[in-house]
Write a structure and sequence with these properties.
The chain is an alpha+beta fold. About 35% of the residues lie in helices and about 20% in strands. The chain contains 21 helices and 23 strands. A ten-stranded mixed beta sheet has the order 15-17-16-14-11-19-20-6-9-23. Strands 5, 10, 12, 13, 18, 21 and 22 form a seven-stranded antiparallel beta sheet that branches. Helix 1 (about 5-15) runs antiparallel to helix 2 (about 20-35), helix 1 runs antiparallel to helix 4 (about 55-95) and helix 14 (about 365-375) packs across helix 15 (about 385-400). The two termini are about 50 Å apart. Residues about 1-20 and about 25-35 have low confidence and may be disordered.
């Protein structure tokens, strides 16, 4: 583009003073205006001979004015373009009710079902991120109801669609707009907004990822509401502390450990009424239970408490982790291993998202992680069949010989806290890691809908004494270690736990072509070193987040939820430098930078000597 205003001014300025130069100077003026990033031509001594100082000042003044006008026009154009794109996306988003209704034969809550009207003077401003595929498509049924209701139709989102549509003007922008609106509404009433996280146990980490992605600043879109507030996010530290949404867990998965612990149920509301078919009576009862659940989620009387979030971080002083990750491959069925060179061997494949950072529920290495990795290949559509699949894979592992890619038991694994070695215990007495099947920690006091923990005590005290349970906001890991006979010693599915302050370092040493499975919040990965060198997985507390307790919260299982501190969001760390380290890691995660750091390529997998599944 050219600058006609500057050309006219220049022409007027030289009229009668530089004969025969008018067209030449007008061309020069346009060139000056068009080359914003190049050196100013008026600084050239040869060019300066054509004009007086006053004329040069006038040209520069007009150039600045024209540049400002052009920037204002461009800003207006971009804003108008963004509004048009977002209106189109929002229209498609609101028209999604028909699509959601078509996901199943009929809505289990009734095809004419509805929520109660949202009362802005009574209810807490709330958004929702639901997995439509969870709960045997119960998530899709709930989203379909929300699409018909004022307020809910704009605030209830498919978490899958939001993550997949992060383009400018896409669904992530719509979610961000609603998140900002909820913050403003809550601020006006002096309360904290909420967000319903609907899905399996891994959804809470997924929800945190989406929240941080929505709040992540973007320098290229600073004029579109994504300007950096000085911390890498569009909200200031004070806004994050006061208005980061408190999480409500809607149990739509198989085990639903998080929802169970927080008092929101072990099954989705109304599940018991629709198991054998969507009868009218069953749908009506299920809807009543769902409405009561939503009412409790939005009620200001439901208490908000603190919750610890742990995270996998690089070793102290390092910028990156020293291991790579992949997923277990192979065929669906009892045994995913492949017969190669006279023995059954594991087949690996590049890992998909998410990358491990947020650990909200539990972490372990060993048997349960291997079982979860095999389950991921055989995942079913219904919660009950998923539970049966876990059992099938556990039985298969117990009946098989360990593949050559895995050490015997936890051989090669050590766990330490600062200078204290936690695992293997009593190693100086000959106690070996290979005799153990699992080591890990609980953050919540349920795992797999069956196991929970309490402080370690002598055998006689396990039956008659009251022991401290695993707690989710005491800034401590409830560590456990298991052998095959632990169930008979503990007794039952009660883990003997040891409260330990982080950070924790889990180190693995093994020969080349070996590694270990670990799982966090029910998601499994295989960790290895491409060079065969020892590596470590380091975990520390990284966040304090607010969560909402439901009407079924049982203090007998999880203990007193009040830890004496105001419920708020914060990056964890005793020193500002530690908090900044966490902040940078979170930003790297939502920007996708951890994918290349942690996830192994097909070349990495092959170079380490593992079989790599073909595309």
């Amino acid at each position: 583009c050219s600058c006609p205003i500057a050309g006219v001014v220049v022409g007027s300025a030289i009229k009668g003073e530089v004969p025969g130069k008018k067209e030449e100077v007008e061309t020069m003026s346009r060139s000056i205006s068009d080359r914003e990033d190049e050196p100013d031509l008026l600084d050239d001594p040869e060019v300066g001979k054509l004009f007086s100082d006053a004329q040069i000042d006038m040209i520069r003044s007009e150039k600045r004015r024209w540049t400002q006008q052009r920037e204002a026009f461009e800003h207006h154009r971009r804003r108008h373009e963004l509004q048009r794109m977002m209106l189109q996306t929002r229209s498609q988003f609101l028209d999604g009710a028909a699509y959601l209704e078509g996901q199943g034969p009929a809505n289990r809550f009734g095809n004419n079902s509805h929520f109660f009207p949202f009362d802005p003077t009574k209810h807490v401003p709330t958004l929702a991120l639901l997995n439509p595929n969870s709960g045997g498509l119960a998530g899709a049924d709930i989203l379909a109801i929300a699409r018909k209701m004022p307020y809910f139709q704009s605030r209830f989102f498919s978490i899958v669609d939001v993550v997949l549509d992060r383009r400018r003007g896409g669904l992530m922008d719509i979610f961000r707009e609603e998140l900002n609106a909820a913050k403003d509404e809550a601020k006006a009433r002096g309360i904290r907004p909420r967000i319903i996280s609907g899905g399996g146990d891994g959804t809470v980490s997924f929800t945190l990822f989406v929240l941080f992605a929505a709040l992540c600043a973007d320098s290229e879109r600073g004029d579109e509401g994504l300007a950096d507030a000085g911390n890498g996010f569009i909200w200031s530290d004070q806004e994050l502390a006061e208005f980061f949404p408190a999480i409500v867990q809607l149990p739509l998965g198989s085990a639903n450990d998080f929802g169970h612990t927080m008092g929101w149920g072990q099954k989705y509301p109304g599940a018991q009424y629709v198991g054998g078919g969507h009868t009218h009576k069953g749908a009506s009862s299920a809807l009543e239970e769902l409405q009561a659940w939503i009412e409790a989620a939005l009620s200001p009387d439901s208490p908000v408490v603190n919750f610890d979030v742990w995270g996998i971080m690089p070793p102290l002083g390092a910028e990156q982790c020293d291991f790579k990750l992949c997923e277990l491959g192979g065929e669906r069925g009892w045994d995913p291993r492949k017969w190669v060179d006279g023995q059954r061997q594991l087949v690996m494949k590049p890992a998909k998202l998410p990358v491990p950072l947020f650990t909200c529920l539990y972490f372990s290495a060993g048997f349960a992680a291997y079982m979860t990795a095999r389950f991921q290949i055989n995942r079913r559509k219904h919660p009950l069949t998923n539970k049966l699949e876990y059992v099938r894979q556990a039985v298969s592992i117990l009946l098989e010989r360990p593949p050559p890619q895995l050490n015997q038991g936890l051989d090669g694994v050590t766990v330490s806290f600062e200078d204290a070695v936690y695992f293997p215990p009593r190693e100086d007495e000959g106690n070996e890691a290979r005799h153990y099947r699992e080591v890990g920690f609980l953050n919540i006091n349920w795992q797999g809908g069956v196991a929970h923990g309490a402080d370690r005590t002598p055998f006689y005290g396990r039956l008659c004494s009251s022991r401290e349970p695993a707690k989710f906001n005491d800034a401590k890991m409830d560590m456990y270690r298991l052998k095959m006979r632990s169930m008979f010693k503990n007794p039952g599915p009660m883990y003997l736990t040891d409260k330990m302050k982080g950070p924790m370092s889990l180190k693995f040493s093994g020969s080349r072509q070996t590694g270990m499975f670990f799982q966090w919040d029910g998601e499994a990965r295989f960790a290895f070193s491409p060079t065969g060198k020892p590596f470590s997985i380091n975990i520390k507390k990284i966040l304090n987040i607010p969560v909402v307790l439901g009407p079924e919260y049982d203090a007998r299982v999880t203990g007193n939820p009040e830890n004496g501190l105001k419920a708020e969001f914060a990056f964890a760390g005793k020193l500002p430098g530690e908090q900044e380290e966490v902040r940078r890691r979170v930003l790297r995660c939502v920007r996708g930078e951890l994918n290349a750091e942690l996830n192994a390529s097909r070349e990495d997998i092959s170079a380490a000597g593992f079989l790599c599944q073909e595309d």
